[in-house]
Every structure is written in C-alpha cells, then in structure tokens.
Amino acid sequence: MAFRFSLASVLTVRKLLEERAYSQLEKVQQEILQVELQRTQASDWLSVCVRSREAELSKGTSSFRLQSQYDQMLALEQGLAALEVRLQQLHSKRAQCLTEYQEARQRREVMEELRERQRNEYLRHEAKRQQSALDDLFLSRRRHIR
User: Fold this and answer.
1) Model's pTM, two decimal places?
2) What is the end-to-end Cα distance of the chain in Å, rounded?
3) How far are the Cα atoms of 3, 35, 94, 96 from residue 73, in angstroms, in the given order?
4) What are the angstrom distances between the C-alpha of 120 and each of 7, 92, 131?
C-alpha cells in the first residue's frame, strides 16, 4: 500500500494559486520596467528639446518655431508626469502582488510540510508493520523448528 496524501488536491490548488500570484507579480514587474523605459526615453527627449530650443534662441528664430517647441516640451512634461503617476500605481500594485505571492507560497509550504509529516508517519508505521511481520515470521519458524 503506497502513501496517499488525503489533501493532495488542496496542495495542487495551493501550488496553482502560488504560480498565478508569481505570474501576476512578474507581469507587474515587466510593466514597471516598460514604464521606466518610457520615462527615461521621454526625459531624454525632453533634454534634447530643451537644448534645441536654447540653440534656436541663441541664433534667433521665429515665434512660431519657439511656440511649437514650447508645446512639444509641455506635452513631454505632461507625459512624464503621467508616467510618474503610473509608476507609483504600479509600485503599489507590485507591493500588493508581492504580499499575495508570499501568502500563497506560505500556504503551499504549510501544506507540503503537512504532507511530509504525514508521509514520514506513514513510513514509520510501515516500517513497524514490516518489522512486526518479520518478527512474527521469525517466531513462527523458531516454533516450527522446535
């Protein structure tokens, strides 16, 4: 008779929940990286626009061109602000996902620990049963020999 864990289905569900929580955490982390990349790119582009505007101002340019550059810089600054807000939201979501993952992992580990304890108890019981069978066999042969 092989060991059978009565809560195996619960353990399977706990593993699936942990995997799903980890997957969600990875997804949020990837989104954070994308937003940080977008923020870096927008910041770099804003720096280029500022330098370009300063160069235009030093050599003299039309007010239309300056207004166009100003509008572009304003749009970039607003985009950066929106990216910062999104990044804060994602960091908050990551913290929540991390907590959920840690809780799911802990629940899975508790079930695995319970399974291992039950398995060890089963193995001890099985070893005792086998030893008892061997003892009975030995005693019956000994009686039979006399």
Assistant:
1) 0.74
2) 34
3) 69, 19, 31, 35
4) 15, 42, 16
Nearest to 43 by CA among 35, 55, 32: 35
What is the length of the chain? 146
CA angle 27, 30, 34 (to 5 degrees): 140
Query: Token pair for residue 7?
Result: 């809560």
* Residue 61 main-chain phi, psi, to 5 deg: -150, 175
Give Cα separations from 51 to 55, 62, 70 (angstroms).
6, 17, 12
Do residues 112 and 11 lie in contact, with contact meaning Cβ atoms separated by under 8 Å?
yes
To the nearest 10°, report the CA torsion of 8, 14, 19, 24: 160
Using one digit for the tens of pLDDT, what is the confidence trace for 29-80? 999 999 999 999 999 999 988 888 888 778 877 778 778 888 889 999 999 9
Q: What's domain 8-109's architecture?
A: Orthogonal Bundle (1.10)
- State the Cα–Cα distance between residues 12 and 86, nearest whole angstrom: 35
